[in-house]
Amino acid sequence: MQPKRRSDFRTTRSRIFPIARFGLLSHQSDRGRLKTSDGSRYIFKPDIFLFCRFGLVLPSVRFKESIHMGNYQNPHHIHIIADSETWIEGNAVAQLETTAKLPHMLRVAGMPDLHAGRGYPVGAAFFSEHHFYPALIGNDIGCGMAFWQTGLSAAKLKPAKLAKQLGNIDTPLSQDEQEALLGESASDFPFSDDLAVGTIGGGNHFAELQTVETVYRDDLLPAVFDSNRLQLLVHSGSRGLGQQILQRHIEAYGHRGLAEGSEAAADYLAEHQAALEFARLNRRLIAARMLDRWRTEGECLLDVHHNFLEQTEIAGQTGWLHRKGATPADKGLVMIPGSRGDYSYLVLPTQDCQISLNTLAHGAGRKWQRGECKGRLSHKYSADSLRQTAFGSVVVCQDKALIFEEAPQAYKNIDSVISAMKNAGLIELVARFKPVLTYKTSGGCGE
Question: Is residue 238 within 8 Å of residue 278, measured between CB atoms?
Fold first, then answer.
């Protein structure tokens, strides 16, 4: 029997698994196992690591108890944050290992939401020295989450009415419209409308009204937080600008890294910074136009990128930290959303997240590839039935393919992702939020 293409692994109890091509650091000394949904098994003990599936044994790697966070003698060093509820497809792990072999790469870290991307994994951080890799950041530079408190009352919630009031917000905003929404001079945000400024975009991007469901730590909430109000979570990025930047770079340099201090590196970093500013502005404009449609005010509580590059120091070593679908753990409070039919969590990173390269998950992470979602779901669900979740929340999505691709079933359970990070000592839970209205597109979105 041929092995299946996909392999998901699940661990038997909470651990952080640092994996290397020829070395693996164990945080326990006893024998353990990793199980998969299709009958595969990872079996390991302190000196050996084997992957067994249907009689197929892949090359083993060895544990090296002497490896620690400050030791870079092994350049292909990988950490994966996982616990008993974590599922990670084998293709994603393979991509992580391949990325770890890039020249000048010191170490990589996979988050619990790790999943395979277009050549490089999503839900991971990569730390290199002397060189950096724009292709690891991808085309959506600056993609991230902005969390707003609105003036809308949670007690007077009417999702269908709010959805109707929104109408279509898929068209780019002109500079005059930007200025009217923000009350600032258009010269402060000189981006043309051909970059789709003020729009959410396709894929996993969204804007979602939420209500607080559980507060774990009142003392860690923002001072202005009001649980009687609805919150707005906006997930979007740099839209057309980020795509243009990556395309120019790939045409000129392919997937090769850029040497720090070179003219090409300086050019990319300048464009990268512009894309970060655009992405933050874009989330602000999305929130502003939604609040305007609802005739209410709002206040931004946080805005954090999860696709970006920065020069930083980790464990005494200066290098380049790439985050691809990975939330920084050194920027204070962050939001980690589930699918449109699941909870979102406000969390506070702990003081010491170096084991994960100062990085956290950015969401639940995909479980199914986009191309297979409709085939898996259409026999059981119609497009209309997917426009309301198990929570009773309303989903605005008129794209007949996207409604299936972004179904809750296509994503991992967010609680498993949160559990893995909490059990690894990476986060403190602050509050949990439930979706009430998720806006994807009224039919005019683009990737």
Answer: yes
